[in-house]
Amino acid sequence: MARRALVVTTSRYDDPRLEHLPGANADPVALSEVLSDGAIGGFEVDILKDRTRDEVARGVQRFFSAAAPEDLLLLHLSCHGRKDSRGRLHFAARDTEVDTLEASSVDADFLNDRMEQSASQQIILLLDCCYSGAFVKGMRTRAGEHAIDVAGNLGGRGRFIITSSTSLQYSYEDGERSRDGAKPSVFTAAVVKSLRHGTGDRDGDGRVGAEEFYRDVCDRVTRILPDQTPTLSVNSAIGDVVVAFNPAGPRPSRPAAVEPVAAAAAEPVVVAPSTDYPFDPVKGSGYDIGAVMNHLKEVIDLVSDPRRTKPVRSPFFSEVSGKSGIGYDKQQVDAHILHHLAEPADFEVALNRLLREQRVALIDEGTPVGRRFVNLRERCQLVGWERLIGHVKTGRIVDPRWAVAYTSTHLCVLDATHLLRVPYRELSSLSVSSTSRWDTWSGSNDQAGWGGETEVVTTTVRFGAQEAVFEAFHGKLMRDALNAFVAAMADLRKRHPDWFA
């Protein structure tokens, strides 16, 4: 069984109406490296770069006609895609002319014919071009009145077509949004990264099947370009095709050759979400299945790190929208992730994590922005190695009249004239109380009058004989911030009383 790949790319065009695609120069280099790697693709790779229409057509025909029934063929096509007046898809070559598109380009029907007439039973087609999804709409199956000829002469049974976009979307044009200089396109880069890192191996068996591969590539593309959606079409296929092997996974044996069978008529099918993960699929809601499959390990690694200071909170992944969407049950996924939640390694990590989770503005005194808080540091009367860590934003950054600040050892509460320095081990002695009243207000001009009521909150903070008072906007803001912090620190003290001794 041979594994053969043909990479066809066109980066420059004779017709000035077809923009050059400089990034396509990088496509064959990056792709051929992973495809030819014996630990990943194991393909024999040929490249056709910036060729004429006739050269591309002859190369494609030779590629498919030379295949044996047990060979796996992979064709990657990276170029401009154009539609003619009847909506049929054409692939542009170097000498393609827009005015004579049908005569000077490789049309989708030609490519489809070559695939149908190939003896290979396993074909993977990667189309990285505008309107590439239109290819599967015009695709023919091998059944019908020539069913006998198909079984006896054509012999192909498995076709997996992965396109960079739907039939209505652009892949390169519209400002070359998926191209960046001399880098591969977003789609080709996603293909290369998926193969190189083995992230398409969803079930961990060491093999990357075509459907696994598609889901991984699709998620990578849509994360960068949400309005460009790769598609997968499966025609006349029985079982899955092993696209590559996970270089970091177990080393499975190479798949055995399959016996030729007559192909049955089939329409392109929609791939159902995988159920390999221990979560129930739900319709119309839940987490995006591809996002969970691709990034669950990353999230678990994050929450299980005892040195983590970044907050973790639901939602952890993008969510499904629309009645027809299928996602993983959100509560089940959240519970699975939080089961791995690690306790902080020490008090400093715990304090940083707690403040981040409460969306407190953190301060890094070693940065230019952090040094702007020198007045706040002086007002908090920091001593020795004590560091200023964060503060509650009040709309004024430098020397606020009212402030709640957090140091490495103390909670600092300041009003216009008073400072309360509360050691964290003595937070239980802090008292926070508030009162509110409603003030009426009104206004008018020569055309109309208006009015309303505003709640005025007064918050009083006491520690021993000291007292600080906040009113109006600051009253509610400081009350809520202090109550949340004191409650969170009380919970932390229950889990780690030694940190408060």
Question: Mind explaining what this structure looks like?
Answer:
This protein is an alpha+beta fold and 501 residues long. It has three domains: 3-245, 3-Layer(aba) Sandwich (Rossmann fold); 281-338, no CATH class; 347-500, no CATH class. The protein has 13 helices and 22 strands. The strands form six sheets. The protein has a six-stranded mixed sheet with strand order 2-1-3-7-8-10, sandwiched between helices. Helix 2 packs parallel to helix 4 (108-117). The radius of gyration is 32 Å and the shape is elongated. Residues 132-157, 167-182 and 255-276 have low confidence and may be disordered.
What best-fitting shape do the alpha-carbon axes yield? elongated
Sheet bearing the most strands, described?
6 strands, mixed
Report the β-strand fraction as a percent range: 15-25%
Strand arrangement, major sheet: 2-1-3-7-8-10
Average per-residue pLDDT, rounded, comes to 78
CATH topology value of the largest domain? Rossmann fold
What gap, in angstroms, lies between the N and C termini? 70 Å
- Strand-pairing-aware structural class: alpha+beta
Rg from alpha-carbon coordinates: 32 Å
The count of DSSP E runs of length 2 or more, i.e. the number of strands, is 22
* Total separate domains: 3
CATH class bucket of the largest domain: Alpha Beta
Keywords:
single chain; 501 residues; alpha+beta; Rossmann fold; 3 domains; 6-stranded mixed sheet; 5-stranded antiparallel sheet; 13 helices; elongated
